[in-house]
From TrEMBL, chains A, B:
It comes from the Bacteria. Its cofactor is Zn(2+); Mn(2+); Fe(2+). SUPFAM superfamilies: Winged helix' DNA-binding domain. It comes from Agromyces albus. This is Transcriptional repressor. One of its GO terms (biological process) is regulation of secondary metabolite biosynthetic process. InterPro entries: FUR (IPR002481), Fur_C (IPR043135), WH-like_DNA-bd_sf (IPR036388), WH_DNA-bd_sf (IPR036390). The keyword Ubl conjugation does not apply. PANTHER family: FERRIC UPTAKE REGULATION PROTEIN, ZINC UPTAKE REGULATION PROTEIN. Keywords: Cytoplasm, DNA-binding, Iron, Metal-binding, Repressor, Transcription, Transcription regulation, Zinc. One of its GO terms (molecular function) is transcription cis-regulatory region binding.
DNA sequence: GTGATTTTGACAACCATTATCAATAAGCGT
DNA sequence: ACGCTTATTGATAATGGTTGTCAAAATCAC
């Protein structure tokens, strides 16, 4: 049976305290800074479990890193993500859902799923970068 | 200036001969099987260049591997991909383009890009799997 | 509390991708 | 055609995220 450990709870809380998407490594770093001695492998395992249970959303960053986020919305939705600071907006996109279903059906595809993510610079980061600040400071 | 080499042309042709999306490693393997002595690093570079020039499309597979495909359509478009056999249909989706732009603008995001891919089982694979065949045979 | 079983975590292994850099070769001027 | 400049190649090392290993520690049913 599945056992409850403080490590899994720590990962859940750390993920909740994070604004946007975050990598396993970054979350492990954040936990360490709070004094937690949790191991890196454990963070990977906990995040994988959360994603499998639907408690967290995951996506592949454009450079192939897996990112995780605790979602406030329970149902199916998508994300608008700042590629500089990670700020994330959850998006309900009925329009795109319908489009995806239609496209698959029109071509005889079954068991269709879709990946829909929008990356950009949030208003704040746009301002900062225009002022000559460095990205990801 | 940019020079023309048989290696780049070999990668272009190998990519054209491929039905669906393929990884750099797999393409390198395919080239080797035809007797080509091309180096792996060169395949990575050539694919990166093709993608940068818009001659190839690239996407991150669900497990974080970069996949490439020679596009017949020159403009921006998306893909409907069979997760079993790799068969790919190119999709023009003005509706989704407009949606992505609107979503970004509505939230003050700039420099927006989007990832939109639909994965499913093509008609043929649906039939085969229903008949009890194994996936990815 | 005891013990079977799960979980952890330091570390190694893995694997895709990128950086090195000496050797090679494209292509311009001659 | 011939050098010469310089982009390109490719064997190899390095990088970096992720997963596997396995003995030690922790959980929980009894
Ligand atoms: Mn959707
Ligand atoms: Mn698009
Ligand atoms: Zn931002
Ligand atoms: Zn198929």
């Amino acid at each position: 049976m599945k056992r409850n450990t403080w490590q899994r709870e720590a990962v859940r809380e750390a993920l909740d305290d994070t604004e946007g998407f975050i990598s396993a490594q970054a979350l492990h770093g954040a936990l360490h800074q709070t004094g937690s001695p949790i191991g890196l492998a454990t963070v990977y395992r906990a995040l994988g479990d959360l994603a499998a249970n639907g408690e967290a959303d995951s996506l592949q960053s454009p450079d192939g890193e897996a990112l995780y986020r605790a979602c406030s919305t329970t149902g199916h939705h998508h994300h608008l993500i700042c590629r500089n600071c990670g700020l994330t907006v959850e998006i309900a996109a009925d329009e795109v859902e319908a489009w995806a279903k239609r496209v698959a059906a029109d071509h005889g595809f079954t068991a269709a799923a879709h990946v829909v993510d929008v990356f950009g610079l949030c208003a704040n980061c746009t301002k900062l970068l225009a002022a000559g600040e460095q990205p990801l400071a």
